[in-house]
Automatic annotation (TrEMBL):
It comes from the Bacteria. Pathway: Amino-acid biosynthesis; L-histidine biosynthesis; L-histidine from 5-phospho-alpha-D-ribose 1-diphosphate: step 2/9; Amino-acid biosynthesis; L-histidine biosynthesis; L-histidine from 5-phospho-alpha-D-ribose 1-diphosphate: step 3/9. Its main location: cytoplasm. It comes from Petrotoga mobilis (strain DSM 10674 / SJ95). GO terms for cellular component: cytoplasm. Its EC number is 3.5.4.19, 3.6.1.31. Residues 126-218 are annotated as: Phosphoribosyl-ATP pyrophosphohydrolase. Residues 34-105 form the Phosphoribosyl-AMP cyclohydrolase domain. Residues 1-125 are annotated as: Phosphoribosyl-AMP cyclohydrolase. The keyword Oxidoreductase does not apply. In the C-terminal section; belongs to the PRA-PH family. In the N-terminal section; belongs to the PRA-CH family. This is Histidine biosynthesis bifunctional protein HisIE.
Length: 218
């Protein structure tokens, strides 16, 4: 069995402030994308077999396909001669690019011809909100409503979720339903975080129920 920690420790993390560029190649040889990884993201990639990146813009680790479903299943991993760049060969599900194309790369003369994205990334914000809530639980912040809820404990957290769920049921119109549903989802994420449950676990349960194996096809 490979010692992932020993492998990770041998890479040169200092050159790019703790990050290493990752070139991703499909099984047909096409270069799909370029991303960055840190030690934790690479550890998740090697242990789970699915590619994880460190997002420099969002400053968090994300699994490729976590919202789009376009996963990258790791087949082989290579390191360059300086131990500061990785090449990953993957079995790509769907398009690799966030714009819905097979690859993030196109001929340079097509630099002004970007396709419109056909992937719904609206769930990205839910992941960001989840991470903020987890951070407030771990590191309380003065004046934060989320911190207030965690300080109050289970009874308050469950009560607020129940209240918000009722508000959805009695909402008088479409706009109010959207508003109250947003409140309910936020309080649900707080409740799940309090109980140590990740929203991804709930999604996995839904997937099982609505798969042929689960017997509850949509």
């Amino acid at each position: 069995m490979l010692d992932y920690k020993q492998i990770i420790d041998k890479l040169d993390w200092e050159k790019n402030n703790g990050l290493i560029p990752v070139i991703v190649q499909g099984l047909d040889g096409d270069v799909l994308t370029l991303g960055y990884t840190d030690k934790e993201a690479l550890s998740k990639t090697l242990q789970t077999g699915y590619v994880h990146y460190y997002s420099r813009s969002k400053e968090r680790i994300r699994m490729k396909g976590e919202t789009s479903g376009n996963y990258q299943k790791l087949k082989e991993a290579f390191v360059d001669c300086d131990n500061d760049t990785l090449l990953l060969k993957v079995d790509q599900t769907g398009p690799a690019c966030h714009l819905g194309t097979k690859s993030c790369f196109r001929k340079i003369e097509q630099i002004d011809k970007l396709p419109e994205s056909n992937i719904d990334y609206s769930l990205d914000f839910l992941n960001q909100l989840k991470e903020i809530i987890k951070e407030r639980k771990k590191n309380p912040k003065e004046g934060s409503y989320t911190t207030y809820l965690f300080n109050e404990g289970k009874e308050k957290i469950y009560k607020k979720f129940g209240e918000e769920a009722v508000e959805v049921l009695v909402a008088p119109n479409r706009e109010r339903t959207i508003y109250e549903t947003a409140d309910m989802i936020y309080h649900l994420l707080v409740l799940l975080t309090y109980e140590g449950i990740d929203i991804g676990e709930v999604v996995q349960e839904l997937k099982k129920r609505h798969s042929p194996e689960g017997g509850k096809q949509s």
